[in-house]
Amino acid sequence: MRVFVLCLGILAIAACKQAPAGHAAVTKAEAATIAEQAEANFTTGKVDDVMRQYAEGAVLFDAGHPTLSTDRKVQTGWARDFVSMKPADYHVPDRQIQLLGPDAFISSGTEVFTIESGTTRPTLSARFTDVFQRQPDGSWKIVHEHVSLPPASQGN
Known about the structure:
Nuclear Transport Factor 2, Chain: A, 156 residues
């Protein structure tokens, strides 16, 4: 009887590590595609498209603000500020994907894009880390994001 209970316990623990019913565990290739699809919304010019990528209660660290925010209204204001710069040509030349389990992964790297600044379109870059989590409805949302500016060049 003890062996049966022990085996049952081991099976229960193993089941906890599996993806929910109907969902296969995310692969690195799928995670990269999910991240790229989310990022494609950053340059649509629509605040709602940007915010749709974030889970309610997501923790966001923005490069242009000194403190983090979990407040959707504040985060939407940040997205509005970003969209107002008319970002374009967005790409990530050095993406790293780390799988955290069947329903979560990290996408990190350097994001490069142009913005509208008067009559010019300067190129900007920032470092980012996005934690994605599969939601109960099967969609993927960013639950934690940290964006920072690269350090100033140390001209030696």
